[in-house]
Amino acid sequence: xxxxxxxxxxxxxxxxxxxxxxxxxxxxxxxxxxxxxxxxxxxxxxxxxxxxxxxxxxxxxxxxxxxxxxxxxxxxxxxxxxxxxxxxxxxxxxxxxxxxxxxxxxxxxxxxxxxxxxxxxxxxxxxxxxxxxxxxxxxxxxxxxxx
Length: 147
Description:
80% of the residues lie in helices and 0% in strands. The longest helix has 36 residues.
């Protein structure tokens, strides 16, 4: 049973680390990245799988080497959820910083300014999710090590 827990944790950690690395690079170079979002969603799916595996293992009576395994197996899902909530607020923050009352006001700007505001929103969202991906990767690696 230990190997099942470790495989789930390692898969989540590696995909999260890849998402974080790609997100950091694209954030730094100020380039949107559909690939980052695919890796980010794959990471989140693997976090759900890891939590489900932990639940099944708990039901089967699995006793990890360290009781912190349960925290490390479930906390990444909570971190990802909080990051999604922060991502949702990114647009409001950028609009507020640009003195725009709402998203419809962006359409009234000239084309270059529209692109600038939209890129700022995407970049802020990417930054939040990149940070989350690195935290989740660390926690998943801890789950792997404590299983």
